[in-house]
Write a structure and sequence with these properties.
single chain; alpha+beta; Alpha-Beta Plaits; 9 helices; 44% helix
Length: 358
């Protein structure tokens, strides 16, 4: 069992030597790639060594229990620990999405429901921001278009880990399951009769691309500048600081107006454009290998929902896994771990089934 782990030890040793090489750290992109792989293998080997040690301790305890019954308690505590480690090791060895170690860009767009949908988009932004804070991640709003009542018609959030996270603990590995349409049921602030309304907001999740991963030629870009606008369309700045970039070969359009500087808005727009191009390239590659990722809904259509937030019942329901909990108030304050864990577990189960039944 787990014989393949031993073959990873040499790769781990090679990576350790490379991390001590100053030339590797002279290239930040290469250093980051090496660091991610090293952290991934470190977790595998650490778990494997602990599994071996617990297995040896369990075998010894079983032998001693025949002469000394007090060792029976140790057997009872070691058996579930061995099973837990074996399960974790199995999960660590399952082939992962190559983007799982990356940071992430999350786009939230209001959909059906007008102002109520925009307010809900703002609630989702706060939920993801609080979730990121609880995990020690950094967040940054790259672009935002506010609504008249303080919500968001659209908002783009960058989420970045500090240091090199453990396998499966990076922003994209957890937040990638958030892509899709999120439906809310509650009494809107604009409702005078107290009636419950249903509206929706769309969430699109992309791994953040590094410069070396996506090649963008200046000749392929059309860049337009304009004045930033706020709720109702009023001008926010007196200068043309907002930037719209069109990637002509793909038709992808990105605009940013959040910063006061045209240069800053251009930099933010390029980050989003790289992420979109990387995501499009990955989707094409996945389709060509017949291993397409679960699609993220790009249109805000309530009929294609992934999750419902029912405020009157304080209930959150994920329609992909059947997960249901009655702590919506806590979820909206960032307590997403249980919801996401149900999706991670379902994904791992599917990947394991793919290995056992190729």
């Amino acid at each position: 069992m787990f014989e393949a782990v031993e073959s990873l030890a040499e790769e781990h040793a090679q990576l350790e030597r490379r991390m001590a090489d100053p030339a590797v750290h002279a290239d930040p992109a290469q250093a980051k790639k090496v660091g991610r792989r090293y952290a991934e293998l470190t977790a595998v080997l650490r778990t494997y060594r602990e599994w071996q040690q617990v297995g040896d301790d369990l075998e010894a305890a079983r032998e001693l229990a025949g002469d000394d019954p007090t060792f029976a308690d140790e057997v009872a505590s070691l058996e579930p620990r061995l099973h837990e480690l074996a399960e974790r090791l199995q999960h660590l060895l399952v082939p992962r999405d190559p983007s799982d170690g990356k940071d992430v860009i999350v786009e939230i767009k209001g959909g059906e429901g007008g102002e109520e949908s925009a307010l809900f988009a703002g609630d989702l932004l706060r939920m993801y921001t609080r979730f990121a804070e609880q995990h020690g991640w950094r967040t940054e709003i790259l672009d935002a278009t506010e609504s008249a009542l303080g919500g968001y018609k659209s908002v783009t959030l960058s989420v970045q880990a500090k240091g090199t996270p453990e396998p499966g603990e990076a922003p994209y590995a957890l937040l990638k399951f958030e892509g899709g349409v999120h439906r809310v049921q509650r009494v809107p602030v604009t409702e005078s009769q107290g009636r419950i309304h249903t509206s929706a907001a769309g969430v699109f999740v992309m791994p953040e691309a590094e410069d070396v991963e996506v090649e963008i030629h200046d000749a392929d870009l059309r860049i337009d500048v304009f004045r930033s606008s706020g709720p109702g369309g009023q001008s926010v700045n007196t200068t043309d600081s907002a930037v719209r970039i069109t990637h002509v070969p793909t038709g992808i359009v990105v605009s940013c107006q959040n910063e006061k500087s045209q240069l800053q808005n251009k930099d933010q727009a390029m980050r989003i454009l790289r992420a979109r191009l990387l995501d499009a390239a990955q989707a094409t590659a996945d389709a060509e290998t017949a291993d397409a990722r679960k699609s993220q809904v790009r249109t805000v259509d309530r009929s294609e929902r992934v999750r419902t937030y029912n405020f009157p019942e304080n209930r959150v329901s994920d329609h992909r896994t059947g997960f249901k909990a009655y702590n919506l108030d806590a979820v909206m304050d960032g307590a997403l771990d249980d919801v996401i864990a149900s999706l991670v577990d379902a994904d791992l189960t599917e990947r394991l089934a793919g290995i056992e039944n190729p």
